[in-house]
Amino acid sequence: MVRELDDCGLVIAQGQENAARRDLTFIERANFARQMRDAGYDRKIICDALHVDKILISQMLSVADRVLIEVIGSAPGIGRDRWLALADKLKGRDLADRAVGESSDARFEAVMAALAQPRPPAPRPRIVTVADGRALAEVARKRGRTVLSVDNGVSAGFEKWLVENLAHLHGDWQDGRED
């Protein structure tokens, strides 16, 4: 059976054939959607060609416009959510030189790693000294806690007094804040 198809019909048929012939990755489908849009096809035709709704087409096009598809490749192990996260993190940054790896999945991971926010260094502990200059205690702040380590050899019983009076000291501090 042979039938005549106009350009729109051909694009829809090509999209459906590609989908049936090969399990295309999200980014391959997004790239095809971008190519169709750039060729002047409207979203309804693109939706019909890829058998997806307009919301997914919008996501695909937003990713395809921002991501290094040609450099990374199809990345079959990377799903839609990770591509969307990559597109969100890229925000106009050119990291094509970071897309290094033997597989497209490895290139994707390399770009994601380059975008990872480095953790700020932990603040240095503060040393509290007594009048003669000896270290009485060390105060360290980490993971939402403040840790006070008192040198019992220097404190001469201060550590015991501090523990016994800590609740009272906290109460005095709170009273002073209310003023």
UniProtKB/TrEMBL annotation:
List the source organism.
Rhodovulum kholense
Q: Where is the RepB plasmid partition domain?
A: 20-169
| Matching Pfam families | RepB
InterPro entries documented for this protein: Plasmid_RepB
User: What's the domain of life for this entry?
Assistant: Bacteria
* This protein's name: Plasmid partitioning protein RepB
